[in-house]
Amino acid sequence: MPTPFRHTRPPSPKSATGRTSEVFEQIAVDFGIERPPTFVVLSSAPELLAPAWALMRESLIAGAGSRTGKELAALGVSLANKCPFCADAHTVLLHATGDHALAEHLARGGTPQNEDHARVLDWGRRTRIPGAALTPYPFPREQAPAYLGSALAFHFINRIVSALLTEQLLPGNAQRFRAVRSLAGRSVARTVRRTAVPGAALPLLDAPGPGPDWAAGTPVGPAYDALRTAAHTGAELLDADDRTLVRETLWAWDGSHPPVVLRGFPNRRERPAARLAVLAALAPYRITDEDVAAWRGARHSDASLVRLVAYGAFAAVERIETTMRVPVTRP
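Request: output the structure for the sequence above.
Response:
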């Protein structure tokens, strides 16, 4: 059977032990899918696996607000990031919520007929643009930690998936067929519709901080903090000049996708690490075998590649997050 992985060969989840095994066990229970490649690909660098799962779990799965609404926000993010794997996954998960007509309407490229649904989907799309007007929220303000956390989780996950997985959600792109989408959704419907206990992923993390103000007082905050800390370890794979280049590139980014001809990107031969990090941030689907080979040589392992891609992916997340912040009003 063809592998869904690009550029790496992650260890078999069946051989996982310790914390990694605990994460996969919780994913199976709370996500309803055993060993999803979205997370298996991170297991080459296990320090990233637990916090990436925790942020998704505590926002999308256990956070406040309807699952349909958060799936729509995540779908908007995935469409904006041009991640067909994730977009197809959210369509399947909308089937799992019971919103079958909505799922199929979106699968055909339609816009939700329900105005509230349309506003949430559009909000998710606009989160890719640093500084976009994201308020007033299309959801109750008290649900902002879950919605913002879901959006940021998928800005990270989209980039990991686009860089390191193929575009096929199911073998042979079987998710193109309505019956397959519906059946796949129904297979996880019981899990998706079950109420998940907030905070259950936090024991999988190593002493995270409280996180940003917009998530303060919720499990989303520590999960975000833990992923930020883990992703930042990838900075060790770049020299100081490359790290500066990544920061400056992201600061100047307007949310657009690069043109077909990549002008202004770091040269593959001269600055291969910077090129991979910038591509992971802005256009991970444009990472090629040649880009990876130019950097990797005989020195860098699968774990190093995952860490470098995660560093670039989270650089984009942080750029987006800094312009999403909304002052928190406390009594």
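The radius of gyration is 19 Å.
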